[in-house]
Design brief:
By secondary structure, this protein is an alpha+beta fold. About 55% of the residues lie in helices and about 20% in strands. It has a six-stranded mixed β-barrel. It has a two-stranded antiparallel ribbon with strand order 2-3. Helix 3 runs antiparallel to helix 10 and helix 12 packs antiparallel against helix 13.
């Protein structure tokens, strides 16, 4: 028999018991649908995390003061001597592969513009912060190094702050009071969205020197910076630049060999790799749990096919009596099992995609349906049909024609 004949014969047999055929495929439908939904949700979450971390800059290093051991007692994070603008210059001059380096200090502040007010994070930052963060302005401009050194009272605001204080109006050229200190708005940053559970656009940038003298209160040293942000040339190895940077800072901070660093370096590329690996593992676990339904569905199909073989024993005997070989009987029942699984797979695929879209729309949850997962789901359906359909098909092909014809 040809493949077309196998399919035609299998379709005739399945149409005789439509309800049983539909019920038999339920396990496969649920299994494939679950695989698609779980993979879509897991993949969407993974891509969102990667985009959020990437928006912070994967070729960026951030340096914080660490803890210090004084008299045998370990202080808390940030208890070590602060980073300074001298550290910035040393990094810029002595570390190869550094494209830009900026100091930053932040504090909570109340902004007032006209009758509107808003509480946000004020970032006192060097002019190079725009290059480090790769953050273009949507309107206006960013302040330069000369303006920052002159301690100008100018500010660049994020799109969230612009919306909350000014609505649809252009705020460039207007004045905003930051903790009762007037600042002229010279620019509005392009939107960056969420990252790490925080709205990146809910921020106001002012020159570091101005923030230190007017907004940050008491500082430990005159040229203190809260943290240092370093952008690394993409042609350089990030880990090598990080090691070189740590060497320079250890020399500047007089840390002896064998002593722990009293500063911390955060590598966003490592964070991205770790989070991505964790999310991929979670997605695989979800998909594996959903795949169990495929196995359960396959067992159901095997049981129904075994029942079908018993019910159609006389039919099998008659087919063999008129010339059908064992291979023909095997092919017929195997084709029926595969068709059942493929039908269930396509229905489950449609159902899974539909549920994923509904979840995305109702709960504003990111989903990503990989073409590879769709292909795997369909191939898995066919594999289940072959795997669990083989035993009943083999049993049918080995029946004795004479005994089969006598079967009541």
């Amino acid at each position: 028999m040809t493949l077309a004949e196998f399919i035609k014969t299998a379709m005739i047999a399945l149409r005789r018991n439509v309800l049983r055929s539909v019920l038999t495929t339920l396990g496969i439908i649920i299994g494939v649908g679950s695989v698609i939904v779980m993979s879509a949700i897991g993949g969407g979450a993974s891509r969102q995390i990667e985009q959020q971390i990437a928006s912070l800059g994967t070729n960026q290093l951030t340096i914080f003061p660490g803890s210090q051991n004084v008299g045998g007692r370990q202080g808390g994070f940030g208890s070590a001597p602060p980073l300074t603008e001298k550290d910035l210059r040393a990094i810029r001059e002595k570390v190869d592969g550094v494209v830009a380096v900026a100091g930053s200090m932040n504090n909570s502040a109340t902004l007032v513009a006209g009758n509107a007010n808003w509480v946000t994070q004020v970032q006192g930052a060097s002019a190079e912060i725009q290059d480090v963060r790769d953050w273009p302005v949507k309107s206006g401009r960013f302040y330069d190094a000369i303006e920052a050194a002159a301690r100008r009272k100018i500010a660049v605001i994020g799109s969230t702050v612009a919306r909350e204080l000014f609505g649809a109006a252009d705020p460039v050229g207007t004045t905003v009071r930051v903790n009762n200190v007037p600042f002229e708005i010279i620019g509005v940053l392009a939107s960056k969205g969420q990252a790490g559970g925080r709205d990146q656009d809910d921020v106001i940038y002012v020159p570091l020197q101005t923030a230190r003298s007017r907004l940050m209160g008491r500082v430990r040293v005159p040229d203190e910076v809260g943290q240092v942000l370093v952008k690394v040339d993409e042609t350089h190895d990030l880990e090598e630049v990080q090691a070189d940077l740590q060497r320079v800072l250890r020399e500047r901070r007089r840390i002896l060999a064998g002593q722990s660093d009293n500063f911390a370096v955060r590598n966003f590329a490592d964070i991205l790799a770790t989070r991505s690996a964790t999310q991929r593992t979670l997605s695989l676990l979800l998909a594996s749990a959903a795949a169990i339904s495929l196995v359960v569905g396959g067992i159901g199909i095997m049981n129904i096919m075994l029942v079908s073989v018993t019910e159609r024993t006389r039919e099998i005997g008659l087919r063999m009596a008129i010339g059908a070989r064992g291979g023909d009987i095997l092919g017929q029942f195997l084709t029926e099992a595969v068709l059942l699984c493929l039908a269930g797979g396509f229905i489950g695929l449609t159902l899974g995609v539909g549920i994923s879209i509904v979840v995305s729309q109702l709960f504003d949850w990111p989903v990503f349906i990989s073409p590879g997962i769709i292909l795997i789901a369909i191939l898995a359906s066919a594999a289940v049909g072959v795997l669990f359909g083989y035993v009943p098909a083999r049993r049918a092909s080995q029946l004795n024609p004479i005994e089969a014809l006598r079967y009541e």
